Amino acid sequence: MERLKARILSEGQNLGDGILKVDGFINHQVDPELMFEAGKELARRFAGVGATKVLTAEISGIAPALATALQLGVPVVYARKTKPITMPDQVFLTLAPSHTKGRTVELIVSPEFLAGGERVLIIDDFLASGSTILGLVRLAQTAGSKLVGIGALIEKTFEGGRAKLEGLGVQIESLAAIVSMEGDHIVFSDD
Amino acid sequence: MERLKARILSEGQNLGDGILKVDGFINHQVDPELMFEAGKELARRFAGVGATKVLTAEISGIAPALATALQLGVPVVYARKTKPITMPDQVFLTLAPSHTKGRTVELIVSPEFLAGGERVLIIDDFLASGSTILGLVRLAQTAGSKLVGIGALIEKTFEGGRAKLEGLGVQIESLAAIVSMEGDHIVFSDD
């Protein structure tokens, strides 16, 4: 998506160690119009998969997942990283290592909102090492849902996440795939 | 907003101790259409305040704030509760007691995205005791921004938050104001 790539080039900052700072428009401050254009494009690419639910992880997956779910006309569920008091005692829980947090985080979904028979589309802000997305896949599988697609705003191809996900046999889409970041020089894949 | 009130009546659960469980459509699973209808209504009510930025708190404020900001055509900033590694060392930070979490949480905003001269509209999912919103007000004031309004999806009038906020002299709006919850009996204010 050209508008997203242009924004990454103009405002993204390579902080080193594979960290791309995009918190002026995705992760802390959010540009709603950009987000809804991205949601529209993700919904277009996954129009044929028959998703009945969008699944993401708090916190920064919420905005792109909500925008995509709006376009698809389905609910979105965000996995919590801490269990709120409103959640039942029995939950689906998995552990996922977080590169940017430097530790393992819990991903928790209530069985009330992820059930057998759902067709789950996973949407997140980043596809990097794939750890968070694989955690969401495990949650969906544990719930007896069927995974139908995986989409991200930004992919860092050099972290190898896609390779880990390809065995799942579902469509994988990213709107801006970065093949290398060297200093201020960010290179996207041709697509 | 009638559609929101109807949803609270049909799916909201009073868990006691003032806790209303609405995680089937707001807090864990989100209904995107309901959220965008709410955002449209909040944007309509605050159309005259000249907001240049919407400010909210992660996690559950993000969806209604994003929906409102989209309609107003302004960016949204969500205060973080933990400082991500992409944030500069110098930040705006305040403490807010959280009733539902049973502890005090940090609210952190980067000075990059909240500056003097901004006209800040605060949007959150709940207006209850007002603690989180007052924390956001302090962040906006510390940044030298001007507070221009406060909006919430659901107000629990019996927790007294509005009284604490009225001294700020800005417009305060909620889309469903609950005056009492006794067992399954939820009563809204006339509005």
Please, could you describe this protein's structure?
- The structure is a homodimer.
- By secondary structure, chain A is α/β, with parallel strands linked by helices.
- Helices cover about 30% and strands about 35% of the residues of chain A.
- Chain A contains five helices and eleven strands, in the order αβββαβαββββαβαββ.
- A six-stranded mixed beta sheet of chain A has the order 5-4-8-9-10-11, sandwiched between helices. Chain A has a two-stranded antiparallel sheet with strand order 1-2.
- In chain A, helix 2 crosses helix 3.
- The longest helix of chain A has 14 residues, at about 30-45.
- The radius of gyration of chain A is 16 Å and the shape is globular.
- The N and C termini of chain A lie close together (about 10 Å).
- The interface of A and B includes residues 31, 76, 100 and 101 of A.
User: Which strands sit side by side, in order, in the main sheet of chain A?
Assistant: 5-4-8-9-10-11
The biggest beta sheet of chain A is recorded as: 6 strands, mixed
Shape of chain A: globular
Largest interface: A-B, 41 and 40 residues
Query: What is the multimeric organization of the chains shown?
Result: homodimer
Enumerate the spans of chain A where pLDDT stays under 50 for 5 or more consecutive residues: none
Give the ordered list of helices and strands of chain A: HEEEHEHEEEEHEHEE
Give the count of helical stretches of chain A. Answer: 5
The N- to C-terminal Cα distance of chain A equals 9 Å
Helix and strand layout, with pairings?
The structure is a homodimer of 191-residue chains.
Chain A: H1 2-11, E1 13-16, E2 19-21, E3 29-30, H2 32-45, E4 53-57, H3 62-72, E5 76-79, E6 92-98, E7 103-109, E8 119-127, H4 131-142, E9 146-156, H5 161-166, E10 171-182, E11 185-188
Parallel strand pairs in A: 4-5, 4-8, 8-9, 9-10
Antiparallel strand pairs in A: 1-2, 6-7, 10-11
Helix pairs in contact in A: 2-3
